[in-house]
Amino acid sequence: MTPTPQLPIEEVLRNELVSGDTVLGTLGPIMSHLLANHDNSLFSDEIVARVRGMIGHLANQMLDELGRTLELADPGILAEGQGRELASELATSQALLTHCHALALEWQLAERLEKRCAIDPVLTPLLQALIASTREETAEMAMALLASQVRFVQAQRRMELPLTELPGDLFHHAVLTWQTFSGNSDEAALQMANRAMRDRFDEGASRLGLLDRLVGAMGNGVRAALSISHAGVAIFCTALASQSNQDRDVAVVSTNDRQLARLALALRSAGLRPKDIEKEFLTIHPDTVLPEGFESLRADRAGEMLQASGGWSPG
Fold this sequence. Notes:
Blueprint: H1 9-36, H2 46-69, H3 77-90, H4 94-117, H5 125-131, H6 136-157, H7 168-181, H8 187-200, H9 207-217, H10 228-231, H11 233-244, H12 248-253, H13 260-269, H14 274-284, H15 299-308
Helix pairs in contact: 1-4, 1-13, 2-3, 2-4, 2-8, 5-6, 6-9, 9-11, 11-13, 13-15
């Protein structure tokens, strides 16, 4: 990103944003194509494998629930026989694929920053401070998030995604896909399994729900969450999404090296000063330098550019 007198900073960033939007728009279709190809030797990339693992785990959980409801001697027999086929049905959802892709990218970034910068993927300085808060509600939410983040790390290491950790709309879509897929099963058992899964689902208690609530409760203190070394990847991405008016999955993807303009604009839109944005880039993309003239870009203009880009909708 190099501005010139003929091409000022806003035009440079706008061009970069258009290029980034093109990449965002292809994520779902490309991931769908890769997942549909069962020759793993051709697609050994870690992200694709992780997304495939998460989709497969979602399918197996729902089939296992039906197996338990049917009181099968081996409840897992349904997943063994039908898991791959149901996973293929789930993978037709671009929204679900792009969400799993964002989770995989989030974990990849967390692993990279842990190795390079010693940023703990679970207990960060900000979360530690929130746990020690004198406000009981804040401290309880922070403790719940700590436990939830531990489970997220464990699940990502196993390439899994608990059904209850999905956003509400994706949970509903996944269960409907499973119901249609299992339509030939005993109707009463199907309804019982459906009710059991829905009764256990509580979006507000999920990791993403807790992140939203905790960041929302920080008020003016949310600026501390925009330091990735202080807040950690999970809280940082949630705060970035909130403060730049973007979907969280988009905020996560913006940390990728193909989305440098979007990340810079999001941080500026969120109210960070250029010198503070440079610090975040030094942590996330240490080999990248902000373009000359970036310091002249106002926060409101950065927000307008983000909104005008059309961005990317996981739906």
